[in-house]
């Protein structure tokens, strides 16, 4: 499975993108803005390719997708939410988009998570550095983030 996030629109408050699964549009995304210097809880993760796994979130109290080896970031998740206030460097997903907002987030997340979880390797999981158990996703499940951003003012 291949996940591709194309960042498409940047404002002074958020970054909107499109998420594709195996080349097919899945949902819209919302992240914080890209910055040259990271501001904790207010910066989108850098462009790149990241391994994706599934682990129990201590904050949300359920299994959720997590990105690994994101330089200068920890605990980057894919989850539901609607605005930049709902993310602290994580990737939010939704069915529709508008200015600085996505909607239909819970349904979009549910559909995406089912696809991600379907490729989880059902073996004894290794421990992460922080001691939480996780399930590794198939080696080929990676998230690639591209920037083809246009700036938008309303």
Strand content: 35-45%
Order of helices and strands: EEEEEEEEEHEE
- Tell me the count of domains: 1
Major pleated sheet: 9 strands, mixed
Shape: globular
Mean of residue pLDDT values: 82
Number of E-type strands: 11
Point out poorly predicted stretches: 122-140
Compute the number of helices. 1
Helix content: under 10%
Structural class: mainly beta
Distance between the termini: 36 Å
Radius of gyration: 15 Å
Describe it:
The longest helix has 13 residues, at about 105-115. The chain has one domain (about 1-150). The model is unreliable at about 120-140 (pLDDT under 50). The protein has about 150 residues and is mostly beta strands. It has one helix spanning about 105-115, and strands spanning about 1-10, 15-20, 25-30, 50-55, 60-70, 80, 90-95, 95-100, 100-105, 135, 140-150.
Give a concise summary.
The protein is mostly beta strands and 154 residues long. The protein has one helix at residues 105-117, and strands spanning 2-10, 15-21, 24-31, 48-57, 62-68, 78-80, 91-94, 96-98, 101-103, 134-136, 142-151.
